[in-house]
Amino acid sequence: VAREIIHAGLTDEEFIRNATTGYEEFVEFVEPWTLEHTEEVTGVPAEAIRELAHGYATAATAQICWTLGITEHHTGVDNVQSLCNLALLTGHVGRWGSGLVPLRGQNNVQGGGDMGALPNKLTGFQDVEDDEVRARFEAAWGCEIPPANGWNLTQMFEAMERDELRAIYCIGENPADSEANVKHARAMLERLDVLVVQDVFMTRTAQMADVVLPAALGWAESDGTATNSERRVQRMRAAVSPPGQARQEIGIINDLAALMGDDRWGNPTAEELWEELRTVSPMHGGMSWERLEAEGGLQWPCPTEDHPGSPFLHGRLWERPVGGRLAPFSCVEDSPPLDLLTEEFPLRLTTVRALDSYNTGVQTSRYASPIRTGEALEISVADAADLGVVAGERVRVSSRRGAIEMTIGIDRELAVGLCHTTFHFPELADVNQITSDAVDPKSGTAEFKAAAIRIERLDGNDRLDVDHRVGAGA
Fold first, then answer.
1. Is residue 255 part of a domain?
2. How many helices (H) and strands (E) does the chain have?
3. Where is the Molybdopterin oxidoreductase domain (predicted)?
4. How do the pLDDT tens digits run along the chain, 474 residues long?
5. Is the peptide bond before 301 cis (omega within 30 degrees of 0)?
6. With contact defined as beta carbons under 8 Å apart, do 71 and 445 qualify?
C-alpha cells in the first residue's frame, strides 16, 4: 500500500518534509513490494490493494482503526508501525477527523495502561528507568521504587518456569483460561508457592488459588474512573452494593498493605487517590474530580485546570517548526507466522470474538442469549468438502501443542485454508490448548491469531442436535 501511494504521487510532501524522519530510507525499503508481489505473498488481489491505497491517500480525512487482529502476532508492534507509516505518508494524523485508532477490547484497557499497569511505565506512561520521574513518585509515595523495568505477562510465565517467580497476586485476570498454550500456563501456576486471586467470579484461576479475595464489580459496585479508547476519562459510580463477602478493591489492597507492615495508607477514597494521581501524572494534572463530575469526562492530555482536554493527539506535527521530536518512518521486515503451515498442520486458525460474549466467558456465560454463538470451529465451504465434514459434526482439532474436540461450523465468507473460533467457551472447547505461544519480543504478546492446525473426523460420530448456522461465528 505504501509503495503504491508513493508511486502514484499521493504522498503529502510538505508534511513528510517538515514532520518526519527516515523517508528516503523507507522509500527504498518498500520498493520491492509491487502490487503483483504483494498479491502473491498475501493473496489479496492487486486491484483491491490499489483501490485501498488511492482511497486512503486521497480522502480529505481518514482513520485507521485496529484491534487484536493486528497486535496478537509475533510481529504485533511491527504491524502497528506499518500502519503508522501510511498515516505519515499521507498526513492523516494529528488533525481533526484523521488519525490512528487502536480500539480496546474492554472498556478500561486504556485506563489500566494510563495508571501504570505496564512493567516499564509509571502512571501517565512515564518511564520506570527515568531517575527524575522515579524521584517524583518516590517523594509522593514515601518509598523507594525499583529502578529496573518489571516483567510482562509472558516474561512472568518464563520466570515461573525458572523458579524465579514463586508468588503471584492476580487481580481481575484469568490466565488459566486466557493464555496461549494454556496447558503450559496451568502447569506453571501449579508450580507457585503462593497464588492469590482477587476477582468478581470464581474463575478457573481462582479455583487454583491458595487465597481468593472476592472483589466488588468495577462497573456497577465501585466508585472511580474509566478511560475509553479516545482517552476520555469518565467517572464511574456505584449503583449497588457488592454482595456477600465481596469488598471494594481499594479497601482490600489497603488492608493487605497494613497486614504486611505498612499502615500509612489511611483508607483513601477513590476521589483522594485520583487527586493524588494528578500530582504525579502531568497529562492528568488538570482533571480534577470536580471537573470530571461536572463535564462528563475529559480527554488527556489535560495538564492544567483551564485546559479543555485534547480531542486528538499529535497536533504538534502540524506546527512549524514541529513541537517536540519528529515522527519516524519504520522499516519493518515481512515475517510470516512462526507456527508454520505444513502437510501435518495445513490450516490456519485465528481466534475471534462474538458479539454477546466477553473474553473467557466468566462474566457472560451465566446468562442466556438468543444470539449466542462462537463455540464452533468455523471453516470454509471448500475445506469442509475436502475434509468430508458437515456443520454440527464433532471433530478432533490438533496443533503442535495439543488436541481438543470441537464442533464444525461452516462460514461461506471464509477464505480456503482459514479457520476461526472464539475463546469464550473453554468449558466446551478449550481452544487455548492449541493456540500458538510464539511471542512478539517487543510487546510480549502471544501470537493468538495464527496457529497451524489439523482437523480429523472422529470415528462413528453423529451430528449434534444444536444450531450451528452457516456463518454464525463470522
1. yes
2. 18, 18
3. 59-257
4. 999 999 999 999 999 999 999 999 999 999 999 999 999 999 999 999 999 999 999 999 999 999 999 999 999 999 999 999 999 999 999 999 999 999 987 789 999 999 999 999 999 999 999 999 999 999 999 999 999 999 999 999 999 999 999 999 999 999 999 999 999 999 999 999 999 999 999 999 999 999 999 999 988 999 999 999 999 999 999 999 999 999 999 999 999 999 999 988 889 999 999 999 999 999 999 999 999 999 999 999 999 999 999 999 999 999 999 989 999 999 999 999 999 999 999 999 999 999 889 899 998 988 889 988 888 999 999 999 999 999 999 999 999 999 999 999 999 999 999 999 999 999 999 999 999 999 999 999 999 999 999 999 998 654 444 444 333 332
5. yes
6. yes
- 423: CATH: 2.40.40.20
Is this prediction's pTM over 0.85? yes
- Considering its fold, how many domains does the chain have in total? 3
Q: Are residues 179 and 260 in the same domain?
A: yes
In terms of residue numbers, what domain contains 351?
347-457
